[in-house]
Amino acid sequence: MPAAELDPVVILHERFADAIPRAIPDAPADADPLIAASKRPELGDFQCNAAMPLAKALSQSGTKTNPRELAIRIIEAVDLADIAEPLTPESIAGPGFINVKLRADALATLLTRLDTPALGIEPASTPETVVVDVCGVNLAKQMHVGHLRATVIGDAIARVFERLGHNVIRQNHVGDWGLPIAMVTTKLREEAAAGRLDLDALSLDALDRLYRAAQAECRGVTTSLRLAEKFRLGPKVEAELGAIQADADDHLAAAKSTLVALQSGDADTVSLWQRIYDVTMSACLRACERLKTRITADASAGESSYRDELAPIVEDLVSKRVAIESDGALVVRLDAEGIAEPCLIRKSDGGFLYATTDVAGIKRRVEQLGADRAIYCVDARQSLHFRQVFAVAKRAGYATKPGADRVARLEHAAFGMVLGEDGRPFKTRSGENVRLADLLDEAVERAGRAVAEKNPSLPERERAAIAEAVGIAAIKYADLSNDRVKDYVFDFDRMLAFEGETGPYLLYGLTRIASVFRKAEEAGVSIEVAAAPLMLTQPQERTLALTLLRYPSTVRAVAESLEPHRLCAMLYDLAVAFSSFYDACPVLRAPSDEARDSRLRLCAITRRVLADGLDTLGVPIVERM
Ligand code: ARG
Q1: From the CB of 133, is ligand 1 less than 6 Å away?
Q2: Does domain 436-617 have CATH number 3.40.50.10750?
Q3: How is the beta sheet containing 343-346 ordered, strand by strand?
Q4: Which residue's CA lies nearest to atom 7 of ligand 1?
Q5: Which CATH class is domain 3-102?
Q6: Most CB within 10 Å of its CB: which of 82, 137, 529, 535?
Q7: What angle do the packed helices 267-290 and 235-263 form, to 10 degrees?
Q8: What was the pLDDT predicted at 1?
């Protein structure tokens, strides 16, 4: 355990883990001390619940014993003198729960150690290079609510690693290559040639329409045609369908030749493609900025950037016998890795696939960018895809950093879907995908109304900026606070509420602290309390201190689990603990100057942890609202 450990749970874990084998020599090796926050705070702050499973394990291996007896042996062996009240047989509750109450002075010492500029989070002693796949927009398509998650969660994970002092590289794997893009490029060329569209005034909305029109034109009716023949619907129907199909075939052929032109660098085609790229990406980067993420143009590494790397990689996979031929296509069989579905690497017509590009992406991220960890923040529905490409890359040796013999950690930080109130994928009333930009506008507008209602005296100018921050905070916090892999229901009313686990509730906590300091200054009380001794006598003060001490270990846990909702939950607990403290412990009217200064210092630490925690998640904050 590093000397700087501040989280009592971690400290107690260590102490009990050390005591158990001494107390019970025949205990299973690495028995978990099972330290948890106390369910009955009147008995203590924490409990060690190890005695019950230990007794069970021992009786299974033939030693008759009871948990209470083991608990007694454990409390005799464990050394907590420096941090906890002495343990006695009265500390043992029920069948063998050991209750631990921290000493107030030890709690104050720990919190004093946390109260540094770093807030107890020391920069990693061996910084790693962490590449985080974020956003993943597709050309000529509006960003929708699915991209919200890839953008917001991906950026939050990246920020956590930055906060811990790692070297972070964001990669926006833009879907900007392949046949669908060639289809819309073809369509754009036709529309511009026919004078139906001004290329200089091209909008993403217009592109989105063209994209869908192009898809429809190329789709064709082969299935209907086959059925018409099978059920003998007659020559007229067949002829009509045949004509539609021929038309679709023409469109598809045109798109394929556009793709060839793009691949060979034909100047006119490339410049059309560039136009589509610029229009899409400027909208995307605007959304990323509005969402207060650190995703900028230099993170863009689209599928197109891999185009010259695919053929050599496929060749390499063949020569290493990783890829084999199957019906004219190239596949990688992954039975050895426990994956039944082979990974298709090259189609029989010679075309490469989404998977081929991602294998190239891993190779670049590990070999060129130097990734120790490559994290993909992508929809859970792509989990088979990532299991496959990770396996292929490892088999081919692309996940091993040159010079190091360690395989990089490849991780899919999968997220669930955003659902509407009906429990189905979130759509507009007419069944369209909800545009991200519209969603943000609505959140900000609603936040504006809520803020105006709560604080009518806010000057108009200030209100707009506050509404923007509160609206974005509400959306981001709602997205981040839900268990990442689970689906969640998008609900404006709930995420914008000032009560419950919401962004506005956390921001409200911050504004209350800010007003404590304003009032202190108005009353002529010095707020220079950085060195005031902390006196943690009231239960609410203890709870607030205990919650604050969880901060560094929670940030570390997010880096390990890639689950930002753990930090959201800790910050929410902190806001709740602050609220109880604020209600129960008067600050400016504290019983003594010492108590007042101690409480002001508690307010200051809480403010810094809340602000730092929200910043680490990428949630904007406000001082007033
Ligand atoms: N463009 C993809 C999609 O919309 C997401 C890209 C995710 N990243 C990746 N490296 N495959 O589904």
Answers
A1: yes
A2: no
A3: 324-326, 329-332, 343-346
A4: 136
A5: alpha beta
A6: 137
A7: 90
A8: 38
